[in-house]
Structures are given as structure tokens and as C-alpha cells.
Amino acid sequence: MPQTDHLRRIRFWLAAFIAGLFLSGVTAFPLQSELRWLLSCLHAGSLQPMAESTGLLPWIERVYVALSTTNSHYPFLAYGTDWLAFAHVVIAVAFIGPYIDPVRNKWVVTFGLVVCAGVIPLALIAGSMRGIPLPWRLIDCSFGILGSVPLLICKRSILALECRGV
């Protein structure tokens, strides 16, 4: 495969990864509004039976009530979520380095893979300790698994470039 194809592949997958991190960060700011919108969708006629039978609707309602109550009585706790959102954006910015010069900044891709692997034990252990239902923890685990896919593709192309002395 030509060098330009490897660079194009790396940049495509890193752009997708950066966009995912950025969107997950930005969407963590308006959680209460997003949950309100999600609840209205789940209460819609066609979705409600499925949302109830899977346990999704009661769980989202519970989360919405907890978040609304917390925000009305203790709004300063949302500051922690603001920092979480900011951290996602900051991590996204770190991946601009390998986007520009993948071989020189390959360590960032390795860092991302380590972090993706760390999502799984965090979701399973901390999620269990916090009473998060298992299906939701598995969804959280999937972010680590799915996030590693583009990074593994990038790593393979970076190694190919490195072997060519780029």
C-alpha cells in the first residue's frame, strides 16, 4: 500500500476518533436537557413498549429524577461532569499530534489503546459499586472496545509507515 494511502487511512480514523471524543465531551454539559429529550422520545407511542420491556425507560426516568434533584439542590456537583466533559475535549486535542505526524506521535495512539482497555475494568468495577445495571455497564465497555478499533487500524498503518522509514 502506498504511503499516501496509509496517511489517508490514519487521518480518516483519527478524525473519526477525535470527533467521537469531542462529541462525547460536548454532550456531557447539557445532561439534564438531553435526558428530558430522551425521555420524551421514549414515551413516544412506538418506542414506549420496547423501552419499558427492556428496562430502559425506568432506568432513564430514575437517572433523570436523580440528576434533576441533584441539580436543583446541589448544582455544584455538576461541576465534576463539566470537568469530565472538558477532559474528553482535551484528550481529543492530543490526537491532533498523530493526525499531523503519525510516526513521530505514535505514542499517543498507544496511550489511547491503553485508555480504551482501561474503560472495561472501570465500567465493570465502578459501575457495580455505583449500582449501574449490567447492560448499561456493558454499553460503557463497548466504548472502550469500539474506540480501540480505529486506533488499532491507525497503529497498523503507522507501523507500515515506520517500516518504510517515513
What does this entry look like structurally?
- The protein has helices at 3-26, 31-42, 48-53, 56-73, 78-94, 96-100, 106-129, 134-163.
- The longest helix is centred in the C-terminal third of the chain and has 30 residues, at 134-163.
- It is an all-alpha fold and 166 residues long.
- The protein contains 8 helices and no strands.
- It is elongated, with a radius of gyration of 19 Å.
Rg from Cα: 19 Å
**Relative strand content:** under 5%
Uncertain segments are none
How many helices does DSSP assign? 8
Q: Largest beta sheet, briefly?
A: none
Q: How many domains?
A: 1
What is the ordering of alpha helices and beta strands?
HHHHHHHH
Shape: elongated
Termini gap: 14 Å
Please state the average pLDDT score: 95
